[in-house]
């Protein structure tokens, strides 16, 4: 954890682009509660294969312009051409965006062509070759190993490719076992990876949704957490109280051992992230 302890802490919130005007209003209310915490940045996800290209852009701009907080649109490269990525980078640059979360993404169902990029390291290299150091580039990493990786070691080496291509920092997939993060960071140090690796935090509010997400992205819900959440059934209040306890404790342990901040997957809702934030006594970051 030595390399991580030297970095200043960065707190951030992730949102997805709303599909309807009602959802956009909900996001504005969420921002009304989270922006006063003064996160270092907010990020906005990018739909598989560019399906939210315009919405991601509009949402990122609206957040940046209305809150004054730096906004980092995510950009995934699978099924994209170099020219289409070039156009997006140019649009971001000309509208004052300086931070990107660069990803490979997952192939959307029904889409057959993988496009001109195979992996996220190629996207990072392309962003650097097209725009130099204009953008701060975040990339994804996986303390519990990406589900398609051949092995933990090869996944780690593939993460290093993104760092070598010019990534400035990384955000992890969410996890509930802090030891997975500590070991991952130590393994990164061993390989000479020296950028901030910020834990991604998924608050717990809804067990069936969390179980579905976790199956898809390869995040492990430890048995003792699963069993308790299952036992609560439809009792949302108990799920939230237990979830808050578990997630706040996780965050506390991460920060105490030197994690350089936290990135909250808010799912466009303020309360669960806010509760964790307050339980940690973070005040205005
Ligand atoms: P990569 O780093 O390219 O890795 C993908 C897989 O390929 C891994 O198994 C890796 O080990 C392997 N690999 C990498 N490079 C090589 C290589 N050169 N040779 C052989 N194998 C290689 N998805 C979205 O669609 N939109 C989003 O907005 C979004 N935001 C995310 C934000 C965060 C913080 C995280 C953690 C994930 C996010 N995702 C998002 C999910 C992400 O797109 C998927 O996890 C995707 O499957 C992998 O993306 P990546 O950028 O990590 O890919």
From TrEMBL:
<keyword id="KW-0274">FAD</keyword>
<dbReference type="InterPro" id="IPR029041">
    <property type="entry name" value="FAD-linked_oxidoreductase-like"/>
</dbReference>
<dbReference type="GO" id="GO:0009086">
    <property type="term" value="P:methionine biosynthetic process"/>
</dbReference>
<dbReference type="Pfam" id="PF02219">
    <property type="entry name" value="MTHFR"/>
</dbReference>
<keyword id="KW-0520">NAD</keyword>
<keyword id="KW-0285">Flavoprotein</keyword>
<comment type="pathway">
    <text>One-carbon metabolism; tetrahydrofolate interconversion.</text>
</comment>
<keyword id="KW-0486">Methionine biosynthesis</keyword>
<comment type="pathway">
    <text>Amino-acid biosynthesis; L-methionine biosynthesis via de novo pathway.</text>
</comment>
<keyword id="KW-0560">Oxidoreductase</keyword>
<comment type="similarity">
    <text>Belongs to the methylenetetrahydrofolate reductase family.</text>
</comment>
<dbReference type="GO" id="GO:0035999">
    <property type="term" value="P:tetrahydrofolate interconversion"/>
</dbReference>
<dbReference type="InterPro" id="IPR003171">
    <property type="entry name" value="Mehydrof_redctse-like"/>
</dbReference>
<dbReference type="InterPro" id="IPR004620">
    <property type="entry name" value="MTHF_reductase_bac"/>
</dbReference>
<dbReference type="GO" id="GO:0071949">
    <property type="term" value="F:FAD binding"/>
</dbReference>
<keyword id="KW-0028">Amino-acid biosynthesis</keyword>
<dbReference type="GO" id="GO:0005829">
    <property type="term" value="C:cytosol"/>
</dbReference>
<protein>
    <recommendedName>
        <fullName>Methylenetetrahydrofolate reductase</fullName>
        <ecNumber>1.5.1.54</ecNumber>
    </recommendedName>
</protein>
<dbReference type="GO" id="GO:0106312">
    <property type="term" value="F:methylenetetrahydrofolate reductase (NADH) activity"/>
</dbReference>
């Amino acid at each position: 954890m030595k390399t991580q302890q030297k970095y200043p802490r960065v707190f951030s919130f992730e949102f997805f682009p709303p599909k309807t005007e009602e959802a956009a209003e909900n996001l504005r209310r969420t921002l009304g509660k989270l922006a006063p915490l003064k996160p270092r940045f907010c990020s906005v996800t990018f739909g598989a294969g560019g399906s939210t290209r315009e919405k991601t852009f509009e949402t990122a701009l609206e957040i940046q312009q209305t809150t004054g907080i730096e906004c980092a649109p995510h950009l995934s490269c699978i099924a994209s051409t170099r020219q289409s990525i070039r156009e997006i980078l140019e649009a971001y640059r000309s509208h004052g965006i300086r931070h990107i979360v660069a990803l490979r993404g997952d192939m959307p169902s029904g889409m057959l062509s993988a496009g001109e990029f195979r992996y996220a390291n190629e996207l990072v290299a392309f962003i650097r070759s097209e725009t130099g150091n204009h953008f701060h580039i975040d990339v994804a990493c996986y303390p519990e190993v990406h589900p398609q990786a051949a092995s933990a070691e090869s996944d780690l080496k593939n993460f290093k490719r993104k760092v070598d291509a010019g990534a400035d920092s990384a955000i992890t997939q969410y996890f509930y076992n802090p030891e997975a993060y500590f070991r991952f960071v130590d393994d990164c140090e061993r390989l000479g990876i020296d950028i901030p690796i910020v834990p991604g935090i998924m608050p717990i509010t809804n067990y069936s949704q969390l179980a579905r997400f976790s199956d898809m992205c390869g995040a492990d819900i430890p048995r003792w957490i699963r069993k308790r959440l299952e036992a609560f059934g439809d009792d949302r209040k108990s799920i939230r109280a237990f979830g808050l306890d578990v997630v706040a404790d996780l965050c506390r342990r991460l920060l105490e051992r030197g994690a350089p901040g936290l990135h909250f997957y808010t799912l466009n809702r303020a309360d669960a992230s806010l509760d964790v934030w307050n339980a940690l006594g973070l005040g205005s970051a």
